[in-house]
Structure formats: C-alpha cells, structure tokens
Amino acid sequence: MRITKGRFGPGLAVLAIWSSLAGTAAATEGYFALGYGPSQRAIGGAGVAYGFEAMSAAVNPAGVAGIGHELQFGLEIFAPTRSYTGTGTGFVPSGKVESGNDIFPIPNFAYNLPLANGAVFNLAAYGNGGLNTDYPTGLGGCGSVYCGGEAGVDLAQLFIAATYAQKTGAISWGISPTLAVQRFKAKGLSNYAGISTNGAKLTDNGYDMSYGFGLRLGAEVEVSPTLTFGVSGQTKMYMSKFEKYAGLFEDGGDFDIPASISAGVAWKATPTLTVVADYQRIYYSGVGAVGNATNAGALGAKGGAGFGWDDVNVYKIGAEWKQSEMMTWRAGYAHATNPIGPEDVTLNILAPGVVEDHVTAGGSMRLNGRDTLDFSVVYALPNSTSGPETTPGGPTGGTIKLEMHQLSASIGWTRRF
C-alpha cells in the first residue's frame, strides 16, 4: 500500500486540483492568489521569511528546507462579487450589472520528503484561479454587455512545482522548476472584430489550453534566533499561445504568466508569538496581453492592445500565536495596489480585479500527534474604479464603474510522518 500511495497519490492529487480549478475565479493581487493554503491565507499571504509547512514552497522554495516529512491538502471556497455600473453608456447597458458564477472551489496539495543528504524534495500543486466573469443577456439597451450576447472570460492556471531545498547553517535555499498549464475561453466580444487582426479567433471559440515553464528561486537567512529574512523570485513563465484566441491576445494569442519578486521578515517576538511582513511586486506590464494599454493598437497584433494592467505592489503583515500545544491562531492584513486605471475600465468589465484591502484570520488545531486541521477566512473589502466608456470606435461620453469584493473560507489537513 505504501508503494501504491507513493506512485499514484501525488498524481491523483494534481488531477483533482486541475479538475477543480477549471472554471474558478480569483482576483486578489490582480489575478495572483493571496496565498496557496489555509495557513498562508490566515496570515495575510505573508511567509517569505517564515517557512513552517509543506505549502511554503509556493511562497519561497527555501521555506521547506527545515520542514520534515509532511503531506498537506487544502480546499478554498472562494466567493467573489463582480459588477459594473454604467451611467450614460451606449455600448454597454446602463445601470448596475452583476456577473454570475460566484462560488468556486480551489484546492491545493503539497508533499515534503527529507532526503538522505539532509536536503528535501517537495512536490506542490496549486493555482491562480485566474479571472472568471459571466454576464447575462436580457439587459437594457442592446440586451447584453458589448452587444454580442452573453459576455465573459474564464481563465484558470495550474502550477506543478518540484522543489529542491537545503539548509546549511543559518542559510536556507531552494529552487523550484515549475510547470504551468492554462485554460481559457471568451464569449460575447464579436463587436470588437473590427479592431482585431483575426475576428474568427477573437471570441466564442470554446476552451483553449496553453502550456509552459518557469522557475522560482528563494533564500532565507537566520540573522538571529528570533529574526529571519527571506527573498523569493519567480521568472516569467513562457507559455504556448492560445491559438483559438489569436485575435484577442497580443502577438497572435501570446499569454505568458508575469514575473514576480518578494522579500520578507519574520520576528519571533516571544516564544509563542511570531510576526511576519512581506513585500511583493508583480510585473503585469511584462506581459503584453495583460499590460499593454487597451488603445495600443489592434487586438492580436504584436505590440497591440491588452487589458492595460499596471504592475502591482503588495504589502502583507501577519501574526501567529501558539495558544497551546493543541491550538494556534493566526491573523493578517494585505494591501495590493489596483492594476486597472480609469482609461481601461470598459474592456476590464471582463476582468475587474480592483480589490485592494484584505483582512484574514484562521488557525490550526492538532487532532493528534500526527494530524492537524488548518482553517482560514479572507475578506477583501469592496473597491471600485471609474472611468470613461470607450467603444471600438472611440469614447461615448458615458462612465463605467467597476466594483468587486470577495469572501473565502479555507480548510486543510496536515499529516506529519
């Protein structure tokens, strides 16, 4: 039985995660997740300098160097509320319009295995839910957003990372070659065909897949018994093109995953209280399909129009208090800058990732000597961005306000061997 689990357990976990991620939506730091497991989310997504579980590899590969033999599963139930309000609009219906599809399961998995040489091998599977919107017909004006029938997008991203990490003295380091898989579809954009290089590959072509590869590196330094610094970076993940949407995304369907960097500190204030703080920057501007301005040129052209997203800065702080051997409590706060400017609101009805402030809480309860139940709740406060309505032919004089808030609850199980 042990051999069977070793051979097939991680693979089945990855397949289950991909099945659940298809059709999810997450827009917390643009479309990067706040955290990749219940415990990470509970401390505001921080942890670059505080590796304490197998899922820490998703934040900093070095963080698992001191973690023993451990298996983790988690599930987040994510509930975003996305809407826009049109005032005096002519291209999109006026009034407040909400997107459907607002409950999504997002799982995670990690397995940490110590090696004979003192290093560890870690396998983790997790996702950026991406962006999901689904606007109905039967609205005012022409009857639908963009006057092309039901409108929306669905982007899901799965990451499978194999990490090698080692600790030597006060320094830990790790490297994570990462496979990425994306799934995407768009609908209701037929009225943009006039500014697309390929109207047949612009919209309503069902799902398309994209595959690619990137690298995450990280280090932790124990400055003292109570103070640790950490740094981590992810390269741009170079992805195959979405061929079915060559007329939507820049350069014939190119949609890479942005690079990011993070730095953080962990301070053990008392034997039972640890405080963590992180800074993260996500380089959306490095991916044309996302970062190019919405008026940069034809959709699908090299250097052409994107969604106009700016780079995002994220500031995170969290605390962990060990009340007893059986109970640990966590809380946190994160602030992410809004990537969407007023000039780009019309197209970003499809992707209204405008939330900024997140409040988090949770904890872990030991069930026995080997098993722990982890849990967290995250609330992203309402935020909005307003700007002029623009059509493929130019501005109309109307205004559009994008709005979003989010609520999620996570639960997980940790087994230590």
Describe this structure in words.
The chain has one domain: Outer membrane protein transport protein (OMPP1/FadL/TodX) (Porin, Beta Barrel), CATH 2.40.160. The chain is 8% helix and 49% strand. It has helices spanning 2-21, 38-42, 250-253, 288-291, and strands at 70-87, 95-98, 104-114, 120-132, 152-168, 171-187, 208-224, 227-234, 238-239, 260-270, 273-282, 312-322, 327-336, 357-366, 371-391, 394-416. It has a 14-stranded antiparallel barrel. The longest helix is centred in the N-terminal third of the chain and has 20 residues, at 2-21. It is elongated.
Please outline the helices and strands.
Layout: H1 2-21, H2 38-42, E1 70-87, E2 95-98, E3 104-114, E4 120-132, E5 152-168, E6 171-187, E7 208-224, E8 227-234, E9 238-239, H3 250-253, E10 260-270, E11 273-282, H4 288-291, E12 312-322, E13 327-336, E14 357-366, E15 371-391, E16 394-416
Main location: membrane
Protein name: Hydrocarbon degradation protein
GO molecular function, one term: long-chain fatty acid transporting porin activity
SSE topology string:
HHEEEEEEEEEHEEHEEEEE
| Strand element count | 16
What's the number of helices?
Answer: 4
CATH-assigned homologous superfamily? Outer membrane protein transport protein (OMPP1/FadL/TodX)
The Cα radius of gyration reads 22 Å
Order of strands, widest sheet: 1-3-4-5-6-7-8-10-11-12-13-14-15-16
Compact description:
The protein has a 14-stranded antiparallel β-barrel with strand order 1-3-4-5-6-7-8-10-11-12-13-14-15-16.
